[in-house]
Amino acid sequence: MCGIVGVVSQGPVNQLIYDALLLLQHRGQDAAGIVTLQGHKVFMHKAKGMVRDVFRTRNMRALPGTAGLGQVRYPTAGNAYSEEEAQPFYVNAPFGITLAHNGNLTNAQKLKAELFSADHRHINTESDTEVLVNVLAHELERTTRGLPLTPMDVFAAVGNVHRRIKGSYAVVALIAGHGLLAFRDPYGIRPLSMGRGADGTVMIASESVTLEGTGHKFERNIAPGEAVFVDMKGNVHTRQCAEHTQLSPCIFEFVYLARPDSELDGISVYQARLNLGETLAKRVISTVPPNEIDVVIPIPESSRPSAMQLAQLLGLPYREGFVKNRYVGRTFIMPGQAVRKKSVRQKLNVITSEFKGRNVLLVDDSIVRGTTSREIVQMARDAGARKVYMASAAPPVRFPNVYGIDMPTASELVAHGRTVEEVREIIGADALIYQDVEGMKNAIGKLNPQLQGFDASCFDGVYVTGDINAEDIARINEARIGQEDPLEENTTRLAIPNPQEA
Ligand SMILES: O=P(O)(O)OC[C@H]1O[C@H](OP(=O)(O)OP(=O)(O)O)[C@H](O)[C@@H]1O
Ligand SMILES: NC(=O)CC[C@H](N)C(=O)O
Ligand SMILES: [Mg+2]
């Protein structure tokens, strides 16, 4: 889950894209990049790091132009430590294309071999996004019937791209001298929405908060399979380019990934989290009698709405027992288990008076590797809590994710192959209450009856694209090799071997 944004305006766009990326920082902390277009000339700056560190004044000055795009990266393919895999990616032919991607291609390895043997295109990194930009370039070359390039040519190319690539992808791409292209995979797994400013600026971004926060009015979500082409004058052309579509967004966006003030596919993320708290409250009652709980304490940040609603329904006080150091990023999207573990303690500190002598119910939005809950339960005990109960607003995460969340192996998931009781023992809580899968789907799904379902594969093992089998997952597991940061222990990534080397 990276954050992407694309803009077409009639004035300079560098600062606007920078501001938009700050509003997407929660979706990716490892690298950031901006591309701008002035006529036919492409300007780009990308590097590892957070937005504020990557762009200095001199970099911003070197990004002129009236159209552009940006990305914040949370790597789910390739190497988290490679500067070259920061996005956007550039290919010079045809026209000069730059592209930014949120999601993960599940057939990147096969495509990489195909691009080399059939299309004679060399892919220089382990990133699936470099594969994607080359597939788009190849298809655009084939469908262009002369100059100027028409939206119809672009849409024909996107149709072919949909036929070749698999997995999840929300994409923004600039075609030099022509305009901004955006498209979303046929299941709409990753979010993408569009809005407009009072001056006619068109913005396409991962989350609605990006539009609102930069003074643009949200207009609509990009439909699954749909492509939008915005020419350099700001005219918007759209077309459905996929043969079969089914709106099934990733449910983890609502649980954790997106900001609560965003609305994705007609669902308020905040309301989704409140609803999760409500259904979780019912499950808590059946496990721990509310009169045995003195206080409900959220594990900041993402669990707050669920914890608040749960406390209200149980008639229990809701208190802040942990203070978050706002200068430490989100721990779950950090690369490497050692850094994630260390960051929990750096990030959260206890207010001892809220714990001393009390039975506390801690609430988190999800328990994935168990890194946070293990540390937090111990911190609550060290602060003098009598009993420490733990509740998760999401069900146990038991299956690897292949669509752009960095949990590619089952073995790293604390609940994989374990009973709730076994997980409880590992995290050291006195009781552990999980949401159930149907409860989660209903709590969120009822907020938009037009949804055709969710991708909830990390919870139920059902992969929405229908083309992921045990072999694919094993291949993804095996491919997690040789991607270790020399300074990190336990850091591995999904690697796509080069066909030349295979
Ligand atoms: O079981 P784990 O592997 O530890 O992962 C789950 C935790 O990670 C996330 O928090 P994070 O610190 O990333 O972000 P937040 O501040 O938005 O809650 C999530 O909200 C859980 O607290
Ligand atoms: N989380 C994402 O969306 C990642 C995008 C792409 N797969 C990368 O690793 O760079
Ligand atoms: Mg958290």
Fold blueprint:
Blueprint: E1 3-8, H1 14-22, E2 31-38, E3 41-48, H2 51-54, H3 57-61, E4 67-73, E5 89-91, E6 97-105, H4 108-117, H5 128-143, H6 151-164, E7 167-175, E8 179-184, E9 193-196, E10 202-205, H7 208-213, E11 217-221, E12 226-231, E13 236-240, H8 252-257, E14 263-264, E15 267-268, H9 269-287, E16 295-298, H10 304-314, E17 322-324, H11 337-347, E18 348-350, E19 359-364, H12 371-382, E20 387-392, H13 420-427, E21 431-434, H14 437-445, H15 457-460, H16 470-478
Parallel strand pairs: 16-19, 19-20, 20-21
Antiparallel strand pairs: 1-4, 1-10, 2-3, 2-4, 5-6, 6-7, 7-8, 8-12, 9-10, 9-11, 12-13, 14-15, 17-18
Helix pairs in contact: 4-5, 5-6, 9-10, 9-14, 11-12
Bound molecules: 1-O-pyrophosphono-5-O-phosphono-alpha-D-ribofuranose, glutamine and magnesium ion.
Protein name: Amidophosphoribosyltransferase
Catalytic activity: 5-phospho-beta-D-ribosylamine + L-glutamate + diphosphate = 5-phospho-alpha-D-ribose 1-diphosphate + L-glutamine + H2O
Cofactor: Mg(2+)
